[in-house]
Amino acid sequence: MTDTAWIDLALVSARPQAMGALLRYFRNLDMAEEAFQEACIRALKTWPKSGPPRDPAAWLIFVGRNSGIDKVRRQARETALPPEELLSDLEDREDELADRLDGSHYRDDILRLLFVCSNPALPATQQIALALRVVSGLSVKQIARAFLVSEAAMEQRITRAKARVAAAGIPFETPDAADRAERLAAVATMIYLVFNEGYSAMNGPEGVSADLCDEAIRLSRLLLRLFPGEPEIMGLTALLLLQHSRARARFDAEGAIVLLEDQDRRLWNREMITEALAMIDKAMRHQRPGPYQVQAAIAALHARATRPELTDWEQIDLLYQTLERLQPSPVVTLNRAVAVSKREGPEAALALVEPLGDRLAGYFYYHGLRGGLLKQMGRAGEARVAFDRAIALATNGAEAAYIRMQLDHLAAEAASSALVEEKQ
Amino acid sequence: MLYAVFCYNSEDVTGTWTKEQDGKVMRDMAAVEKKYAEAGKLGPVARLLPTTAATTLRHGGGEPIVIDGPFAETKEQLLGFFILDCASLEEAIAFSRELGEVNPSPGAYEIRPLAIYKPSELPS
């Protein structure tokens, strides 16, 4: 590996811990980021000559903190403000740094850093953008590409998010067990959002979206290393791994969606599946089921079926029923309907789907599934209406193309039956 | 003489490798392995899954405790290992429990699922 490549890796991997500590010192995201940036610049200058430090995160925290303090002092001279008022703990001696770096702090530092990006007051898109910028260290340009917006628009989105975070106040007190649990849940949601952004944009610009999925998995593993006994974080990690394991099979060469049952299962990533199954095994021992664990268990049943006809739909139906109890939502019921259609046929599934119409009227998959069920039942006219609604709600080209294919099938069937009728 | 060689590295860093970087490291290592395999000197090779997939059983002094996560003590040393094919984590824990029962000294068994396993190429 070249000099700069290993330095980049070291900087990226040390980032959450270093940023977390700098945020604790400076109590301000922008200051922490600038200090970290400054430390990175110095690392790029010194490390190639002196070799990598034994603990890159500690080095970056130390250098970043000093450069931040220098800056505050310079600004203080210019504005004649007493610097002590700008810093939380200027008194700290450098030899205290070692104490501050040992285990106890760093777990809460990283959790806090993740948590400020997961503030439920922020819209999902802002949470994702902020986390990718602040925790993962992606450039504004990279994030803008992932979201298919201009760099200027993304810059603005991140600035707005930071202003909201600052206004909401960053929690600096050491969290108690209840706070920790609450922060963990918010962070898990944010990580899931990052993954979903990558997952649903998978047919977007080459590579970028898959990177978001990888990044979400990395954050999820990081969280699990900090909280190794949390079954829901095991479930989240497993769920992301299982969904991502199908990445290569989800689209064909032309970028069209390939449904789960039509996917070439040899393209699924076995290593990710193995890791996810191991994680589910661990989570099960806790006997504290939660939504992520149940969703992971459902995904695992798909992963275990080497052929689609070997899928255990009965078990999947039961797991969706559990999920409906844990986290009632029309979308969960819609997903259960797929399992019901496999077990009991399209009529039973349609009966489950119809009552969801009010709440899911603006949801692509509702109309897509309904159209599919109606089509299976031979109600072509109604199927066409449902597919037309779906196509209007498609959020990307692949979704629209998939529905168009269904409409083409219907048209072809209609044409061939017309032909048969003519002959008779 | 048979030797075991264990790999230690920062998971924070290796977890940041891109697929391409990871793939290159694995290919380069496989080239080293190949040389020794052809000379009939290479036993089984394994790559472990990340430590987030690990479980540790601590035994000695009462009922053994099962802890999520890897072995984290620095006061104890790595003394040996087993590789076994289990239907579930429970089976691996049961095996470790049995080992603990016959092992008079308090210690730990770290249970790590394997990501990659290449069987021995040693001449039988």
Keywords:
heterodimer, A: mainly alpha, 20 helices, B: alpha+beta, three-stranded antiparallel beta sheet, two-stranded antiparallel ribbon, 3 helices, about 30% helix, globular
In short:
Chain A is mainly α and 424 residues long. Chain A is 73% helix and 0% strand.
In total, how many beta strands of chain A? 0
Could you state the order of secondary-structure elements of chain A as H and E? HHHHHHHHHHHHHHHHHHHH
Shape of chain A: elongated
Gap between N and C termini of chain A: 73 Å
Give the low-pLDDT segments of chain B: none
* Largest sheet properties of chain A: none
CATH topological fold name of chain B: Alpha-Beta Plaits
Evaluate the radius of gyration of chain A: 25 Å
Our estimate of the beta-strand percent of chain A is under 5%
Mean pLDDT of chain A equals 88
Helix content percent band of chain A: over 70%
The averaged pLDDT of chain B comes out at: 94
How many beta-strand runs of chain B? 5
Radius of gyration of chain B equals 17 Å
CATH class of chain B, named Alpha Beta
Polypeptide structure, described:
The complex is a heterodimer of chains A (424) and B (124). With 424 residues, chain A is mostly helical. Chain A has helices spanning 3-26, 29-50, 56-79, 96-101, 103-116, 124-134, 140-147, 151-168, 177-200, 208-226, 231-245, 270-284, 291-304, 313-326, 330-344, 346-353, 357-360, 364-376, 380-393, 397-423. Among the domains of chain A are: 1-101; 105-228, no CATH class. Helices cover 73% and strands 0% of the residues of chain A. In chain A, helix 13 (291-304) packs antiparallel against helix 14 (313-326). Residues 89-95 of chain A have low confidence and may be disordered. With 124 residues, chain B is of the alpha+beta class. Chain B has 3 helices and 5 strands, in the order ααβββαββ. In chain B, the strands form 2 sheets. Chain B has a 3-stranded antiparallel sheet, with helices on one face. A two-stranded antiparallel sheet of chain B has the order 1-5. Chain B is globular. The two termini of chain B are 15 Å apart. The relative contact order of chain B is 0.21. At the A-B interface, helix 1, helix 10 and helix 12 of A face helix 1 and strand 3 of B.
